[in-house]
């Protein structure tokens, strides 16, 4: 049995989400090897031919657009300004954040065997509480904490403020990961946090710079994560080829410019129009075309993994509910929902194949796309920062399409180029944050209110939306966040 602290951290402290101060407790809770799904799963691997896993990604940024420029959720702004843009969708969005709390109990009561993975940003969770939408959070709590429904639902960790990893300052990667874990525990409890073993990177954006990737994987493992979801076209084999076994778990290898290596399990999110594929439950129908594959000496059902926005776009709002329910009804009629082709959660699948004798060391290996070209140019006995940087510069000169700011599902958008007006202040604020706090000798600083205030502005400035939307209002939001964060750091430390 897992032992967890008896006291929960408060969810809100001085009007801010509780994102720091309980790091020791978080790390003690998440760093365990106990099985999460194995004791309660109602699935047996020998009855199953193929598996699919779907995740719903939910996010609303925090913006300085409340009374007197206060921090509020973009969802609240949508409700308050219904005639701007597509803000009339505020109520449907809010319902989408809640509806899994209705769908799962309904399907279970009908004898179905549903599964879903949930990925909610910290911004969204805070925003729902700020808006007084306790009804949504309570509905999510029901399927997260009630043992009648919890085996059907898996939460995935993420970056607290929806920061894309490749352009997040390296020292802040772990701060986002820990902030989300602590905030999640404050809402759903320590036991719920202990079950969060998979990670969903915002925008499926995997860093391919060797040092960023290494620090990212190292942070994930230090924070108790066992696996992450990666986009098929953001990884390659160690020989630089496209993946051959995209429906099997992979071992993602991260090697830094000092030659150190670290690895973590990756489930491969297949290519395609993500939201549409999830909304129409395409992973289920794709899994029907597959049969068992071999890992080491063990035959295992392959897994089709897919993630899409859980609220965004007409297909998700309108087509998903009926398609979701129809798929589980169909499974009940073909094997009772427990044999043939079934849905699983990611951790459940990995625990079941491990129990069947699969060794993660036998998984096919992969690395971020483009790294093969770097390592071709760096001699194994000359692995150092300068050699790696020289190789990257050579590649950029010989191939204008080569880049090391990562590959994401919005592959046509660079998250770095052309946004220096945001990235530069973002790096400046991060640098100031670490400079001020490294020099601060006042004991457990992360428990202090001033630290939490400075941290939240540092993390908020890294929200992807401030870049994705380009120039205009969103860049102005970023400037306001930067100026307030800088003023706080200068005044308080």
UniProtKB/TrEMBL annotation:
Q: Note the CDD domains from the entry.
A: GH57N_like_1
Q: Which UniProt keywords apply?
A: Carbohydrate metabolism, Hydrolase
Q: Does the keyword Hydrolase apply?
A: yes
Q: Which Gene3D superfamilies match?
A: 3.20.110.20
The highest taxon in the source lineage is Bacteria
Which residue intervals define the domain Glycoside hydrolase family 57 N-terminal in the entry? Answer: 94-245
Any Pfam family the entry gives: Glyco_hydro_57
Listed GO biological process terms: carbohydrate metabolic process
MF term (GO), any: hydrolase activity
Q: Can you tell me which family this protein belongs to? A: Belongs to the glycosyl hydrolase 57 family.
Q: What is this protein called?
A: Glycosyl hydrolase family 57
């Amino acid at each position: 049995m897992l032992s967890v602290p008896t006291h929960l951290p408060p969810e809100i402290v001085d009007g801010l989400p509780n994102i720091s101060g309980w790091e020791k407790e978080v790390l003690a809770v998440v760093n365990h090897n106990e099985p999460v799904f194995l004791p309660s799963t109602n699935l047996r691997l020998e009855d199953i031919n193929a598996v699919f896993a779907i995740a719903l990604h939910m996010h609303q940024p925090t913006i300085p657009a409340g009374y007197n420029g206060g921090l509020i959720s973009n969802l609240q702004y949508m409700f308050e300004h219904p005639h701007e843009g597509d803000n009339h969708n505020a109520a449907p969005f809010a319902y989408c954040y809640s509806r899994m709390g209705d769908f799962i109990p309904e399907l279970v009561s009908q004898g179905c065997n549903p599964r879903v993975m949930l990925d909610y940003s910290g911004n969204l969770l805070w925003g729902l509480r700020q808006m007084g939408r306790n009804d949504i959070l309570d509905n999510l709590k029901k399927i997260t904490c009630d043992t009648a429904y919890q085996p059907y639902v898996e939460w995935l960790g993420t970056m607290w403020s929806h920061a894309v990893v490749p352009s997040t300052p390296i020292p802040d990667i772990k701060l986002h990961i820990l902030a989300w874990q602590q905030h999640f525990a404050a809402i759903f409890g320590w036991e719920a946090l202990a079950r969060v073993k998979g990670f969903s990177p915002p925008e499926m954006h995997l860093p391919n710079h060797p040092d960023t990737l290494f620090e990212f994987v190292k942070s994930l493992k230090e924070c108790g994560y066992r696996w992450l979801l990666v986009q098929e076209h953001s990884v390659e084999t160690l020989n630089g080829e496209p993946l051959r076994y995209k429906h099997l778990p992979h071992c993602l290898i991260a090697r830094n410019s000092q030659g150190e290596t670290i690895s973590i399990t990756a489930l491969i999110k297949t290519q395609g129009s993500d939201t549409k594929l999830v909304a129409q439950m395409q992973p289920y129908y794709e899994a029907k075309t597959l049969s068992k594959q071999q890992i080491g000496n063990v035959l295992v059902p392959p897994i089709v993994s897919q993630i899409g926005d859980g609220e965004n776009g007409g297909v998700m709002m309108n087509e998903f509910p009926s398609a979701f329910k129809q798929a589980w009804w169909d499974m009940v009629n073909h094997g009772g929902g427990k044999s043939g082709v079934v849905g699983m959660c990611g951790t459940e699948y990995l625990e079941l194949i491990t129990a069947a004798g699969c060794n993660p060391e036998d998984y096919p290996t992969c690395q971020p796309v483009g790294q093969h070209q770097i390592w071709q140019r760096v001699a194994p006995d000359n692995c150092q920062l300068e050699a790696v940087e020289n190789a990257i510069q050579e590649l950029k000169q010989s191939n204008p399409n080569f880049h090391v700011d990562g590959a994401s599902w919005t592959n046509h958008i660079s998250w770095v180029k052309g946004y220096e007006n945001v990235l530069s202040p973002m790096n400046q604020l991060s640098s100031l944050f670490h400079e001020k706090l490294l020099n601060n000798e006042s004991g457990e600083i992360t428990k202090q209110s001033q630290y939490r205030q400075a941290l939240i502005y540092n993390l908020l400035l890294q929200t992807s939306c401030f870049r994705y939307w380009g120039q205009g209002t969103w860049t102005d939001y970023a400037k306001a966040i930067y100026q307030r964060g800088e003023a706080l750091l200068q005044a308080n430390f």
